[in-house]
């Protein structure tokens, strides 16, 4: 695993407040803490967190256009993440484009989640997903997933998702939408 240094900050405001530009809208957030193992993520707990985030966001797996992978490049995490992705996107058509930025930034630990969020916002804004740097031979468990390799992939990107596979079984999963829709305006149940 390549370590990196980096940080990011974002401003989160409730819909209808503030006067700055809106880049994305948070649609759903979920978190688990399964205490499965100190360093081995639990696929079932991660799958539940992802599905709960989709439920809270009011989206289905087939609605997701972009997945920002945890992508640590470690055998155990990559195997688990691939297994979860295959399960979540089973039957969801061609599935979303998927990328990871740790090969570019190194693993920034606590900063990695927000760095992935910023990259997803830029990808949605530009309509371009960067490739997983240096990925030439994905593990067999990732076969059929929409991994972006070699060159950037262009397309309409409206809904993105990010999941972090943290130590000690803590897994936050978030879904967000680039364009506001009728469900975003002045919601009071959030």
Automatic annotation (TrEMBL):
Region of interest (Disordered), residue spans: 163-190
Compositional bias segments (type: Polar residues): 163-178
Basic and acidic residues bias locations: 179-190
InterPro entries membership: Beta-ketoacyl_synthase, Ketoacyl_synth_C, PKS_Beta-ketoAc_synthase_dom, Thiolase-like
Origin superkingdom: Bacteria
UniProt name for this protein: Ketosynthase family 3 (KS3) domain-containing protein
Keywords (A to Z) from UniProt: Transferase
Pfam families: Ketoacyl-synt_C
SUPFAM superfamilies, per database record: Thiolase-like
Lineage of source species: Bacteria, Bacillati, Actinomycetota, Actinomycetes, Kitasatosporales
Location of the Ketosynthase family 3 (KS3) domain: 1-190
